[in-house]
Write a structure and sequence with these properties.
Number of strands: 10
Order of helices and strands: HHHEEHEEHEHHEEEHEE
Distance between the termini: 40 Å
Number of helices: 8
Largest sheet: 7 strands, mixed
Bound molecules: S-adenosylmethionine
Helix content: 25-40%
Structural class: alpha/beta
Strand content: 15-25%
Length: about 240
């Protein structure tokens, strides 16, 4: 059984139990390195799609809880984060996401928290939204902070797409899908099995979508965000970083 973050919130009791044993606490170290070890003291940080505040789980995290703001489309994650880190700021952003928040509101604007952020970080968030959502949300977030850093996944880096396809598909199907995506600049994968090349694929509430993953090549992201610094993965992670200032 392949278990992803969404199963912790929308999965069966068995899937929830399995996923709750998995705790990833490397996000702070990742951004700290990608952003060249900034002085985080007194810096206000928005963790966009921050879930229950996993960024704060790293004991070395240098962001003060008072300066930490988390926005996420999963209300239960926001409430759990609030319980764990009551000094931080927690806001439910009820925007539609076919996987994480299928009952949410389409195209809801990012709420104005009345704060000019020093850093806006988004780890593995635009890896689970359409291309169109990424472009629109990045444009909004650029207005809210000085530095915006978000991750994306290059399908070809370290066999990223193959790695995920192999979790969900028989071997011959994996090879067929990889052949279809060979020239792709970007592609999306619904429920681990339906691949859409240079297309965001299905993103409607009529389709039972449990997992939604999207991939962009490094070259494609450079073309989409010509002012960005694009960095390759660090710390043995799979995700690239796109930094906009
Ligand atoms: C794979 S999880 C990563 C969570 C967290 N950033 C971490 O690294 O642990 C993706 C997160 O993005 C959130 N998300 C998806 N679409 C979003 C959106 N449009 N706005 C804000 N959060 C979103 C999901 O609810 C989920 O918590």
């Amino acid at each position: 059984m392949t278990i992803e973050e969404v199963h912790l919130w929308r999965g069966s009791p068995e899937q929830q139990a399995l996923r709750s044993q998995f705790v990833k606490a490397t996000q702070f170290a990742y951004f700290d390195k990608q952003l060249r070890h900034p002085d985080w003291r007194g810096k206000r940080v928005l963790d966009f799609g921050g879930n229950k505040g996993n960024l704060l789980l790293d004991p070395a995290c240098a962001i003060s809880h008072h300066d930490y703001y988390c926005l996420d489309v999963i209300n239960d994650a926001i409430e759990e984060g609030r319980k764990m880190f009551p000094d931080a700021h927690w806001v439910h952003y009820d925007r539609y996401n076919c996987s994480f928040n299928p009952s949410g509101i389409r195209d809801l604007a990012v709420p104005d928290l009345g704060v000019e952020f020093d850093f806006i970080l988004a780890y593995s968030v635009f890896t689970h939204t359409t291309f169109e959502e990424m472009k629109e949300l990045v444009a909004q977030l650029e207005q809210r902070g000085r530095t915006l850093a978000f991750t994306f996944i290059d399908p070809n880096w370290n066999g990223n797409l193959r790695w995920r396809l192999e979790k969900h598909n028989p071997r011959d199907r994996v090879e067929t899908l990889l052949a279809e995506s060979r020239e792709a600049q970007w592609c999306s994968l619904v429920n681990g099995t339906e691949l859409y090349v240079n297309d965001s694929g299905v993103w409607d509430s009529q389709t039972a979508c449990m997992t939604y993953n999207i991939y962009y090549t490094e070259e494609f992201m450079r073309a989409q965000f010509p002012n960005a610094i694009i960095k390759r993965p660090v710390n043995d992670e799979r995700q690239h970083c796109c930094e906009l200032t």
